[in-house]
Design a protein that fits this description.
- By secondary structure, this protein is an alpha+beta fold.
- Helix content is about 35%, strand content about 15%.
- It has helices spanning about 25-65, 110, 125-130, 160-165, 195-205, 255-285, and strands at about 135, 140-150, 170-180, 180-190, 225-235, 235-245.
- Strands 1-2-3-4-6-5 form a 6-stranded antiparallel sheet, with helices on both faces.
- The longest helix is centred in the first third of the chain and has 41 residues, at about 25-65.
Amino acid sequence: MSFGQGGPQWGPGGTGGPGGGPTPDWAALAEASEARTRRRKWLLIGGGAFATIGIAAAVAITVVSANSDDTSASNKPASELPSAADIPGASKDSEPSFEATTPPPPPDPKDFIASAKKDKAPLTPEGMFPGKSWRTGERLYKKGATDSTTKCTSVTQSALGAVLAKNDCTRLIRASYIRDGVAITIGVAVFDTAADAEKTKDQVKKGLVNSLSGKGVPAFCRTGVCRGTYNAYGRYAYFTTTGYTSGKDVTTGDRKAYGAGDDLARFAFQRINQRGEAQASAAAEAPQQ
């Protein structure tokens, strides 16, 4: 072997190698090496794939095992699934429930005018009969004089006064009205209880509240025949005395005089009832203790 420039030189496929032996087949050796490399690569890839499949299988087994304790709901229609009430911790009520509450009934106005213990509003002629007139339908009654006294017998005829005294009348308020020559005096007698007022109404057989003149109402019912009415509501008994300012007698069936007296008796009832309503309304609006 000779060495020249460029390093050792072997003849291709020759027989002149070192020691005179056969020359290796380098191309075959290279192909064999490359084949071995490819096999190792496939083995690595295949091993990784098998490892991944193994892990997935383990996860699947774990998931199935975790759900294997209760298989009663598996693959069943919705109608066979357990209801919400059967699920532990589930509420049986789909909506929040509240205790039923019943508001207290509104106060009864009559309760406030049934006795002096509860009927505490001021008692004055103007409070009982406010304004300068009163209208009902097309009929207008102008108000005249008013007064109030604790001596009930002093402003009544004796027959009525005796009944008021017997049942302990504590006050008598009067007001007069006039329309078309007919004058009417309303008398409202006050008692401590509704029972006293009711007894007074039942015991009155005759006798009138004295007529009250003044402030546009001339004297009337000082002589002649006048009409009287008697009634009671709550702890109040109320009366009317009706007559003509001309002095003419009121006769049975006198529609003009009877109609006027009935109008003012109804007005007295309304005012007593409104007194009860006002106090009941105030009580309803007052803060609860």
